[in-house]
Amino acid sequence: DAGVTQSPTHLIKTRGQQVTLRCSPISGHKSVSWYQQVLGQGPQFIFQYYEKEERGRGNFPDRFSARQFPNYSSELNVNALLLGDSALYLCASKLGGMNTEAFFGQGTRLTVV
Amino acid sequence: AQSVTQLGSHVSVSEGALVLLRCNYSSSVPPYLFWYVQYPNQGLQLLLKYTTGATLVKGINGFEAEFKKSETSFHLTKPSAHMSDAAEYFCAVSDLTSYGKLTFGQGTILTVHP
User: Fold this and answer.
1) B108 CB near a chain A CB, below 8 Å?
2) pLDDT(A107) > 90
3) Which of A11, A106, A113, B73 is found 20 to 30 A from A1 (Cα to Cα)?
4) 3-state class of A85 per DSSP?
5) For the stretch A52-69, what's the b/e string if a residue is b when 16 or more beta carbons lie within 10 angstroms of its beta carbon?
């Protein structure tokens, strides 16, 4: 069975540009979350979606947005990129319940120059 | 608000020695607790989790952790380190009120010497 897949794996963008990251959850999983992991730190929660509705939002500026599609895949959009947005962006999928395991993808490494 | 503190950003052990990675949490409601491992340039893999029930939790690759409510701790141990255990380890907390949102610690890099 395929795990959580993220695309692209690496990305280089210029300051001020916009970027879209994509995530396909494990088949049957209805919850997708996004995390930002800056080098040397733990992952920070950005968004959670369940059944196509936003269920949680972390402390990130409005430049960050996301959505979940009918097939439960998800996109994370970041506008007006800053150098500080350079990080590993992780997507996690869950079956849905509170105490069910979150399965993480390999991440998208975003570098802003 | 929840928080997680991992004591020691770097831990170094010899192969065959005991591994002890420390995690303390803060939560106003009964927590769910997790340990994840991250190998270079990869995502996170779940080692073990505590939700309810038995406070000593066994995970993959010989790791285990004990939930101690009185100490608000969830330390990760392994009796005998292997070279393949070298990685970064993250403790995380969640609860029923946060819809499964994970709050992670800063991580501990484990180095295993021959």
Assistant:
1) no
2) yes
3) A11
4) helix
5) eeebeebebeeebbbebe
Distance CA B48, CA B36 (A): 7
The residue whose two tokens read 């992952």 is A43
The residues with which B78 forms a beta bridge, in sequence order, are B19
Q: Is the pLDDT of residue B92 over 80?
A: yes
Task: Write down the pLDDT at residue B27.
Answer: 83
Place of tokens 């690496």: A10
Q: Supply the DSSP string of B57-89, one letter for each residue.
A: EE-GGG-EEEEETTTTEEEEEESS--GGG-EEE
Q: Is A83 helix (H, G, I), strand (E, B) or coil?
A: helix
The letter for the amino acid at A54 is E
pLDDT digits (tens, 9 = 90+) for B10-57: 999 999 999 999 999 998 778 899 999 999 888 899 999 998 888 899
Torsions phi, psi of B93, nearest 5?
Answer: -130, 145
The identity of residue B69, as a single letter, is K
CA-closest candidate to residue B59, choices B72, B73, B40, B74 = B74
How many Å apart are CA A74 and CA A6, to the nearest integer? 10
Beta strands A44-50 and B19-26: pairing type? unpaired
**pLDDT of res. B40:** 87
Terminal-residue alpha carbon distance, chain A: 37
**A90/B43 CB distance under 8 A:** yes
What amino acid is encoded at B25 in this protein?
Y
Q: What is the pLDDT of residue B38?
A: 96
